[in-house]
Amino acid sequence: MIPDEIASTIISPWAYSDGKKVDDAFTWLRREMPLEQAQPEGFDPFWVVTRHADILEVERQNDLFHNGDRSAVLTTIEADKQVRAMMGGSPHLVRSLVQMDNPDHFNYRKLTQGAFLPQNLKALEARIREIARAAVNRMAEMGGRCDFARDVAFLYPLHVVMEVIGVPESDEPRMLKLTQELFGSQDPDLNRSGAEVTDAKAGVDTVQSVVLDFMTYFNAMTDDRRANPRNDLASIIANGKINGEPLGYLEAMSYYIIAATAGHDTTSSTTAGAFWALAENPEQFRKVKENPALIAGLIEESIRWVTPVKHFMRTATADAELAGKKIAKGDWLMLSYPSGNRDEAVFKDPFKFDVTRSPNKHVAFGYGAHICLGQHLARMEMRVLWEELFARLESFELDGEPKSMVANFVCGPKAVPVRYKMN
């Protein structure tokens, strides 16, 4: 078994907000116990998959390692009981692509996949550039000081994704607040209670109340799009059919929720984290400023560096062997993406932020059938923002202490104060 101190660190929301603690724990695991079981107090035992190659091996075998049989996110025994009691035995408060296995995963993914293909996204680039330019103009008008996370990185991808879904601009603050309450449910600065959540029931109740608010909103949008379909993602979900039948209520609401939350929050975290890293490594900024062709490298390195999704869980559907270890049917596995993205066997100087890193085969978007549906949109959003911003940004530096979210599932910076000069 993984030592208790290490096991408690890699699940601690506070350790992820610190960064170094969790990096040190995963470095130790990759060296000493790259695939072993952990059982922190209050949790069922689970395998911790820390190496890049082993993460790919699990992601590649969707029939052997399921998403939906148990919770797809690390959860306590008590919280799991709470959710199952609420959901008629299901371990999931929502049922999105993340919680699905085939054939449902394939069928539901196919419904919107076309909208996210690179050739179809090209039609959005001009509009995305307008939104990026407006964000850069606002930054220029702020007098040379801002919180890049709150003032730019949170708002720009939010606006892009809400337009794609069909959410009116007036409702964007509501969507941002709900997203931060959902992913920041463990962070007293962001969650609905305004306090540190330690009780399982309170934690589940808090998340469920946020999910219900999302569902109320998107249920009304479904009614509207069925009556008045438009050229947006909401209309595809509202009018979509699986095997000739409309989407189930839970599945449709979950589709909206994952698009509306993961669709912008992960890009926001990566964008804010990239700016933070560039502020701490000004020579990297100068390289990109002098050679805009390096923007592509900056994007991949910042995705690796931030790794906004910290883990997903998988459940073995049969006895199996992984990296020489015997995995039993029903065993739970934690895919530790930040660890895979710091794997010394794959990345030279993994703790160095390097915009020229090549190749950069990070696992931040996942791999195989469950690879992130919105990965091409995320890359386009970041590319366009950096093209617009770096053309005008002359210099910048941190203007205080950046802060990261307190969370162990999806998280990134929540404050990146900067001083800057723009033309």
Descriptive overview:
The protein has 423 residues and is of the alpha+beta class. It has one domain (4-422): Cytochrome P450 (Cytochrome p450), CATH 1.10.630. It is 50% helix and 12% strand. It contains 18 helices and 14 strands. The protein has a 5-stranded mixed sheet. A 3-stranded antiparallel sheet has the order 4-14-11. Strand 1 (35-38) and strand 2 form a beta hairpin. Helix 14 runs parallel beside helix 18.
- Please count the beta strands (DSSP E, at least 2 residues each): 14
Query: Which word captures the global form?
Result: globular
Please give the oligomerization state of what you see. Answer: single chain
The CATH level-2 architecture is identified as Orthogonal Bundle
CATH-derived topology: Cytochrome p450
The domain tally reads: 1
Low-confidence stretches: none
pLDDT averaged residue by residue: 96
Helical segment count: 18
Question: According to CATH, what is the class?
Answer: Mainly Alpha
Radius of gyration: 21 Å
Looking at this structure, what is the CATH superfamily?
Cytochrome P450
Helix share of residues?
40-55%
Tell me the span between the first and last alpha carbons.
56 Å
Characterize this entry briefly.
With 423 residues, the protein is α+β, with helices and mostly antiparallel strands. It has helices spanning 4-11, 13-18, 20-32, 52-60, 77-86, 104-113, 118-121, 125-140, 148-153, 155-165, 172-183, 200-227, 233-239, 249-280, 282-290, 295-306, 337-340, 375-390, and strands spanning 35-38, 46-49, 65-66, 145-147, 241-242, 245-246, 311-316, 320-322, 325-327, 332-336, 393-398, 403-404, 413-415, 417-422.
